[in-house]
Amino acid sequence: MLHLIKAAAHLICCSFVFLNVLSFHAQAQGDLLVMPKRVLFEGNKRSENLNLSNIGKDSATFMISFIQVRMKEDGVFETITQPDSGQNFADPFLRIFPRTVTLAPNEAQTVKVQLTKQGEMKPGEYRSHLYLRAVPKVQPLGDTKPDDASGISVKIVPVFGLSIPVIARSGETKAAVKISNVALNVEQDTLTVLRMTLNRTGNMSVYGDIVINHVDLQGKITRVGYVKGLAVYTPTASRNCSIVLTKPNGLDLHRGKLRLTYSDHSAKATVYAEQEFNLNSTASN
Fold it and tell me: Hey, what CATH class is 2-170 in?
């Protein structure tokens, strides 16, 4: 028992935080800033440079690897080890250098991601997520002090991680989107929530912005909702969304209509799907 107590005295427990922030121009986790927030290989593109910046006050070390995730219908990610039907992992065709980065405060470094062995890829889309994990600074065991007279010390060391999707497309890929299940809910006349489902078909993911405009009876258009960088990843066929609407003073959400537009997140802003929702006192409590 004594040797077990001594071992417990040096126990270190680590908790993991897995975040995927989709609404920022850049991603920050702890003291790490990463740009860009997603990588897409298609056409003749074979490499991408990621810029990692330490915006904290202390030096930090980050380990870089790949993880595989599944997107659920509510947009939540869960880690997996085997691809679902219709899903292809990209990491066998990707190379990262370097895989460990140590940054001083306000220091930046470039990490290169390369697409390799493209000739071995069958037509379709491949996706893995680049995972950047902060290496915790663990106090030397000899410097730890017992929490109580029993000599047992437990230390919680949080380990923060950040992920960005890396997508590679080979051959012919296409996707189409339809909007369904549109519903408007008004809660206590203060919070208005629009709910919808994005239905994706095809062999590629979609990534874009949702714009919600109110069109009154006179044809005046007012933006009341906006979501930037919303994805539906393969093989997920649908994603449920809830968007809180902004209502300027005097705007009547019981009259007119809402125009929902989901557009490609690119300079062309190609429209994936558009749907109109007639109001006319359809909002429910």
Answer: mainly beta
**Radius of gyration from C-alpha coordinates of the chain:** 24
The domain 175-278 is classified under which CATH number: 1.10.10.1320, 3.40.50.920, 2.40.30.170, 2.60.40.10? 2.60.40.10
Which burial class, exposed, middle or buried, applies to 281 when counting CB atoms under 10 A from its CB (0-12, 13-18, 19+)?
Answer: exposed
Q: Is 252 left (phi over 0), alpha (psi -120 to 50) or beta?
A: beta
- Tokens in use for 96? 């990262």
Report how far residue 199's alpha carbon sits from residue 126's, in angstroms, rounded to the nearest whole number.
Answer: 20
**What does the pLDDT look like over 106-164, one tens digit per residue?**
999 999 999 999 989 999 999 999 999 988 776 555 555 555 555 565 555 555 678 99
Q: How far apart are alpha carbons 284 and 195 in whole angstroms?
A: 12
Using alpha carbons, select from 181, 183, 144, 163 the residue that is nearest to residue 70: 163
Report the b/e string of 24-54 with b at 16+ CB within 10 A.
eeebebbbbbbeebbbbbeeeeeebebebbb
